[in-house]
Amino acid sequence: MTIVVPEYLAPLIPWVRGIVGLVLIGFIFVGAMGAVWLERKLSADIQTRMGPCRVGKYGLLQLVADAIKLFTKEDLKPLNADSLLFNNANIFMLGSVFLMLVALPVGAVFINGVEYPLAVTQMDISVLYIEAVSALSIFGIFMVAYGSNNKYSLLGAFRNFARMVGYEVPLGISVISVAAMTGSLNIVDISSAQGLHWNIFLQPLGCFVFFVSLMADMGRLPFDQNESEEELIAGWITEYCGMRFGLGFFAEYIHMILGSFLVALLFLGGWNVPGFIANNSVLGLIAPTGFLIVKVVFVLMVIIGLRWAVPRFRIDQVVDLSWKKLLPLALLNLVWAVGLGLYLGA
Amino acid sequence: MDVAEILKSLTDAFPEAISEATAESEIRAGSYVDKDKVKKVCQYLKDSLQFDHLCSVCGVDYIKRNELEVVYHIASYNHPVVLTLKARLPRENPEIESIVSVYWNANWYERETYELFGILFKNHPNLKSLVLPEDMLGEWPLRKDYEGFPNKTARNLV
Amino acid sequence: MEEQLEPNEMIVHLGPQHPMQPGPFRLNLRLKGETVVDADIELGFIHKGIEKILENKTYLQGITIVDRICYLVALVNEECFVGCTEKLLGIKPPERSQYIRVILDELTRIQSHLLGMGEFGEFIGFVSMFMYAIREREEVLGLIDMVTGARVTHSYLKFGGVRDDLPDGFKEKALSVFNNLKKSVDDFEEMFHTDRIFRERTVGVGVLTADVAKNLGVSGPVLRATGVPFDIRKNEPYLVYKDLDFKVCTETAGDCFARVQVRINEIRESIYILEQCLDQIPGGPLFPEGTMYGRRTPVMRVPAGEVFHRVEDPRGEMGMYMISDGSDKPYRVKIRGPYYPTLQALPPLIIGTTVADVASISGSMDGCTSEADR
């Protein structure tokens, strides 16, 4: 819907947009801090210990303390590091994440039975756009690893390439299967078209392939060979200190939240609610977004729990898994999706 | 095979190289061995008497007798007898044949004995310092007349 | 190692400080892509000169120093040293002391194997395994703490006996700890057997055959995983091991998975030994009757002689060669640590594997560099 602004307030519009943008970025970082807190508490629970519990109630302010620590650290650069790549890698890492956020709807409100999704922009090809932009982060990782003049980072970078190349293909194919069945590439359409029969029931194989490829894309255990703390010290980010490391760290967690959003929107039914809630004036405002957030948190907990419950693959096993096992499954799912779409459409 | 048979077989095979062969108990025996025949004796022990486990190679400094000794402890995976072979070396120029070709794990033991005592092992594939830093090579710290200890300890430096 | 490098080769140091190591040593790897072409180990970062120190301290002071050869299994190191000296002195500790020593040795074995399993899980990325294993280890360390008063570096053994008797309530606490430990070890074994990724990382990795292992001179769980039943407790029994019923745990595969399995089985066997000991332990004095050895040992002169004594360390065969010249200080003590030959055997094993496998193989050897360097 459009808002009509009187004439004398027109010059203020860029300022208003800027302030709204900064507030949203603030929310996103707070969301990332919440995700890190969730990870630390959940991992502590899995390992029968207490996580952060001293700074703030339930350790909620622990991340604030960590951010202050990271800001106050010295910014070291190795002697022979490539300045152009080293200094600017953070731009790519965070930039790709924020570009993804532009097209992602974070909820919806139902006013008088009409649905208004909450997204910064609505594109016709939003799913394809999100896929394409999420692949930009690999440039950031390679810039750090190659520019650090460090052998451990270099080994991490090589492994990263092998992994990303292998897993982009099943990821794209499983997304295309969902789009093919729905008949649109707009993520808002895919989400609303599910109604109450979610895509996970119609395409369980597709959901599985998408989830595994997403974990590999994000670089989470069991696919974090580029980091693998035990073999390569810290892998690709060994030489980053202070807030440079902090920004890379946050970029990874924001990517994780976005990945959970994607799973919830594409396969778990998004914000769809039964009719009686949509027509209710009060519940229509909060319930759909609330449902979506609950699904996102659930997927986030699965991703986090999986990290602490399994060991790590070796890099040749990872590449083997992607090309020999996930790709055939993704193709099979595509055939199934097209067939199911034709049957349901007919 | 018990200890008496082992010692008898050894002294029969090398009558001039083995001397003062004694059996201290049912599972321990020891003898002196001529320093030029060590490798042959070890090869015989490994092939015929089933002594396939080298426990350790170490050096001992007998400063009163003006001698260094290289002591080999050889055991077996099959029977519990441990044989102690000692080779006497003069203190001025101690050299002995290396047994790396017979027992593979003698490599590091001999390197360590070299840097701690100064005993040169001929035909060793890689004789350089193992546990000591390279600039301490030549000081032979474990000999009894080493001047660095205890003068170089922290108590005397601060 | 320093020859001309090909265009796509590089030398990487898994250097003295690395999250993956059990202690500081430098592993120089020559990599071609991800494959290891050549490997070399440099030691000496934690060399304390214990053999020279022992020549300048009395035998009683030596017990405290021998603790620090490997701080994780201090009681077994003390056992070796005190056993050597007792053979030279010609005394034998009474039955009760021998049973107490066996109890402490087996508790040390359990906690060392738990730490080894946990660290191995951590090296291949399974951090939660480390946390679970450490949690169980805390209970066992609490038991050792009850008896000796310390969690590491205990200084508990004395010539002819032990420093203090077992405290009251030790047997009940120990049996309850063992009940929990049996269930936890079953859980760990199930985790290792059913986790698909774990099996992919360990089965068939770092395979040793029995002949190669014997040639390389390794001992302990690494050798028993290849099928050779070599255990000092059965070969030349010391203390009261000949009165106890236990079996030597072996596997045949010789890979990383078999080594972990051997350690899990050994924990179970140790619990069985401990239950027998707590059952059979007799009353009696702690030191031999009618001798001067007691809780306060005077400065004593050890008769001249030499002896070579071996014990079964959790990591293999530990030996000490002690020469005495009749004075109150040893003339020469040579310490043969169990991890020394295992570390020596590491470079030939990892040539041809990838960097990720280096972590697997090195973790499954489970050692303590402190006792390799002394």
Task: Looking at this protein, list some descriptive labels.
heterotrimer; B: 158 residues; alpha/beta; Beta Polymerase, domain 2; two-stranded parallel ribbon; C: alpha+beta; Cytochrome-c3 Hydrogenase, chain B; 3-stranded antiparallel β-sheet; 15 helices; 8 strands; 13% strand; EC 1.5.98.3 (chain A)
Describe what this molecule looks like in 3D.
The complex is a heterotrimer of chains A (346), B (158) and C (374). Chain A is an all-alpha fold and 346 residues long. Helix content of chain A is 67%, strand content 2%. Chain A has one domain (74-342). A two-stranded antiparallel sheet of chain A has the order 1-2. Chain A is globular. In chain A, 42% of the residues are buried. In chain B, strands 1-2-5-4-3 form a five-stranded mixed β-sheet, covered by helices on one side. Chain B has 158 residues and is of the alpha/beta class. Chain B has a domain at 3-107: 2-Layer Sandwich (Beta Polymerase, domain 2). A three-stranded antiparallel β-sheet of chain C has the order 1-2-3. Chain C has a three-stranded antiparallel β-sheet with strand order 6-7-8. Chain C is 48% helix and 13% strand. Chains in contact: A-C, B-C.
Biggest sheet, spatial arrangement of strands of chain C: 1-2-3
Number of domains of chain C: 1
Parts with pLDDT < 50 across at least 5 consecutive residues of chain A: none
Largest sheet of chain A: 2 strands, antiparallel
Class inferred from helices and paired strands of chain A: mainly alpha
Find the CATH topology of chain C: Cytochrome-c3 Hydrogenase, chain B
Quaternary structure of the protein: heterotrimer
Helix-strand string of chain C: EEEHHHHHEEHHHHHHEEEHHHH
